[in-house]
Here is the input.
Amino acid sequence: MLRGTTLSFIGSGTMAEAMIRGILHEKLISPDAITASGPRPERGQELRGQYGIRAVTDNCEAARVGKIIVLSVKPQTVRKVLPEIREAIAPDDLIISIVAGTPIRVIKKGLGVAKVVRAMPNTPGQVGRGMTVWTATPQVDELGQRQAQAVLSALGKELYVGDEGDLDRATALSGTGPAYVFLFMEALVDAGVHLGFSRRVAQELVYQTMEGAVAIARETGAHPVELRNSVTSPGGTTAEALYQFEKGGLRTVVSKAVWAAYQRSVALGELADE
Ligand SMILES: NC(=O)c1ccc[n+]([C@@H]2O[C@H](COP(=O)([O-])OP(=O)(O)OC[C@H]3O[C@@H](n4cnc5c(N)ncnc54)[C@H](OP(=O)(O)O)[C@@H]3O)[C@@H](O)[C@H]2O)c1
Here is the structure.
């Protein structure tokens, strides 16, 4: 899918490296067709040594050689980078932005291009188990869409949506989601330690329980309520614990938290115009 093209990353941090690793692992493109740029020469050396790609400190050089350009800098850096690379971008280049909270209109205006893909990955993408939601401008043709899909699938699963507004919704659910899960994990491990388990044992019990719960939900396709009911015996331990979760308003808190994250994502997107 990516053979015969060139791929450049502007910003060569954690997410860029995860994509490079996944793309090369799948042999989607040869290393010499990948260029990554970033301010630190030692980081470039590291990437060159590990993956055999080209690494440079000049963003314009990377932008010039890439036909597909991934914007993988931090949101606060992207404003500086867009005017810097504008002249190095060809009108037909495909831009894939994974920069959180930066709307397509800002990238189109900043680079003077029409073919833009905007994606919202999440942290597990760093280990190839991510969930990335993405959309594209109408000018991105079928080949461009398939190329974007190939690049993004290096982070794990990807899902195309037709409406950019879905990216704010996805930010609140899958983008921010790992933090919700980490918080719940932490609370469970602490509860296990409170019960008297060592932290190591509590962690193992919690991690495996979480992975197992997701696996059974996926494999059976059963609704979570069904799965929950099947382990809730009358007057039993699960019923007692679930009663306390409901009494504490867990469901309402979760709903309010996700809604607040969504509103924050929309507000940050509006600020990006300023
Ligand atoms: N990490 C995630 O799980 C995640 C999830 C969703 C979305 N994202 C989005 O993905 C993007 C990248 O995130 P990340 O976690 O990979 O961040 P990161 O590791 O900090 O990577 C950003 C890279 O940009 C480099 N950089 C700084 N200034 C630059 C400049 N002027 N020109 C070119 N490169 C420059 C940094 O170099 P130095 O280190 O030398 O400063 C760093 O290597 C962000 O916009 C973030 O919102 C990340």
About this structure: The pocket of NAP is lined by residues 10-16, 37-40, 43, 59, 72-75, 77, 80-81, 98-100, 121-123, 175 (CB under 6 Å). The mean pLDDT is 96. The first helix runs from residue 14 to 25. The radius of gyration is 22 Å.
